[in-house]
Amino acid sequence: MSFPDLVPALAARLPELRGRLIANAPLADLIWFRAGGPAQLLFTPADEADLAAFLAALPAEIPVTVIGLGSNLIVRDGGVPGVVIRLGRGFGDITVEDGHRLRVGAAVPDVKLARAAADAGMAGLAFYRGIPGGIGGALRMNAGAHGGETRDALVEARAIDRAGRIHVLANADFGFTYRHSGAPADLIFTGALYQGRPGDPAAILAEMEAITRAREASQPIRERTGGSTFKNPPGHKAWQLVDAAGCRGLRLGAAQVSQMHCNFLINTGGARAADIEGLGEEVRRRVKDQSGVDLEWEIKRIGVPA
């Protein structure tokens, strides 16, 4: 599928833009599932100021979608209309600050944040070693693992709204709940400040290694997957419900429910996004029929069908 080219009009409107604009940019290679259609326009801003200028000048009728490292995402086969924004090197800085604090850009991978904190002797952030993806996504969904959540360590975050205005949000402004942030949907996070506590680097690294071993033993992390597919419903574990409904190993086309951990969907090779999403919906249907529980997607789904 091919969309109308937005680049000429936007380039003329924004002659001083420093970021990169690509029309009909393939997204599959940026998504862990390795499936899905193109972005009508992919914009990679140079830095926060470049992003703010772009958003301020972008016509209001053009939709904006933000993606991170693509670890928890299905891009539908018809692609994503409008502008897809993906933060790059200009949002990848990590700075250790006084008082056991760490300031990071929104494009920093979660695992890199955990390592930087360990190297600085900063405890309380090792749980990020067990979370795929980047800081922007972690802020949006209150990412957590191994007993820790984003809300436990976040001090504040910087963000830009659809009009190009910069905001600073304190932890309390997020309204964090399980795998959810109540921050306005139009905000694009650009960076965050985290609070750690004094710790021994060797002990923190040992904790991170234990997290790595636990993930490798129980999750299909070397497959083309999107991480945990469904949120844990109150009083239940999603994987147990999926297993009880007989869905372990279930297939649709080249998409499969993982045999190792049945709250993971995998692309066994050549799966369409429609196969992956359709398999997830079939799992939801079977779980509902078997247990009466409505599973809620944890993986974000964007774009239009083919």
TrEMBL record:
Originating species? Ancylobacter tetraedralis
What residues does the FAD-binding PCMH-type domain cover?
Answer: 34-221
Tell me the GO BP annotations in alphabetical order: cell division; cell wall organization; peptidoglycan biosynthetic process; regulation of cell shape
Q: Which cofactor does it need?
A: FAD
What this protein is called in its record is UDP-N-acetylenolpyruvoylglucosamine reductase
Pfam families (UniProt xref): FAD_binding_4, MurB_C
Function noted in UniProt:
Cell wall formation.
User: Where does the record place the region Disordered?
Assistant: 215-235
The protein's UniProt keywords, in alphabetical order, are: Cell cycle, Cell division, Cell shape, Cell wall biogenesis/degradation, Cytoplasm, FAD, Flavoprotein, NADP, Oxidoreductase, Peptidoglycan synthesis
InterPro entries named in the record: FAD-bd_PCMH, FAD-bd_PCMH-like_sf, FAD-bd_PCMH_sub1, FAD-bd_PCMH_sub2, MurB, MurB_C, MurB_C_sf, Oxid_FAD_bind_N
Q: What is the lineage of its organism?
A: Bacteria, Pseudomonadati, Pseudomonadota, Alphaproteobacteria, Hyphomicrobiales
- Recorded GO MF terms: FAD binding; UDP-N-acetylmuramate dehydrogenase activity
Q: Which gene encodes it?
A: murB
